[in-house]
Amino acid sequence: MRNVEIKAKVRNLAELISRAEQLSNSKGEVIKQEDTFYNVPRGRLKLRKFEVFHQADGTSQLICYERADTEGPKVCEYTRVDFPPGSNPGPVLAQALGIKGTVKKTRRLYLVGNTRIHIDEVFGLGKFMELEVVLTEDQRIEEGQAVAEDIRRKLGVEETDLLSGAYMDMLLRR
Predict the structure, then answer these.
(1) Checking CA distances to 87, which of 16, 55, 70, 117 falls within 20 to 30 Å?
(2) Are 8 and 20 in contact (CB under 8 A)?
(3) pLDDT tens digit string along 80-138?
């Protein structure tokens, strides 16, 4: 699976939310997430635990991904495994790989076509916006980049606000 991603810092949260609501024709969905990152030799590996509408349902996802740490639209290739409620692969992963760190965030999710708009409040870091343009198997990367740039502009996100790296990287640098 692949997508094109953009990450940026948020300057005006209320304006960004308003634009995301207009583009998606929705109020979005609020999701609390806790991502535990593990030490791996290549790419990134995280176990994501969900809390939707303030009720932990016990579901989680293991996500392995690789992407360049550059600003602007970048390709991310990933593999995801969904775990049912009550499953907890965390202790096995921690024992085998060691924990790199944890990212806790409250995410507002908006859907616009094949694009996921995330407005994130990351504990210990601040407020950020992510775009993920999910590519079909036959879709060219350039198409996804064009969609990401178009939505970025419609959201009023400036090029000077674009960021590289993952939240985990930012937390480790602090």
Answers:
(1) 117
(2) no
(3) 999 888 788 999 999 999 999 999 999 999 999 999 999 999 999 999 999 999 999 99
Three-state secondary-structure class, residue 159: helix
pTM of the model: 0.90
| Residue 95: φ, ψ to 5° | -65, -40
Phi, psi of 8 (to 5 degrees): -150, 155
Is there a contact between 128 and 7 (Cβ–Cβ < 8 Å)?
yes
**Where do we find the tokens 């609020």?**
30
Amino acid identity, position 66: E
CATH number for the segment(s) 2-173: 2.40.320.10
The closest of 37, 34, 26 to 51, measured between CA atoms, is 34
Domains of the chain, by residue range, sit at 2-173
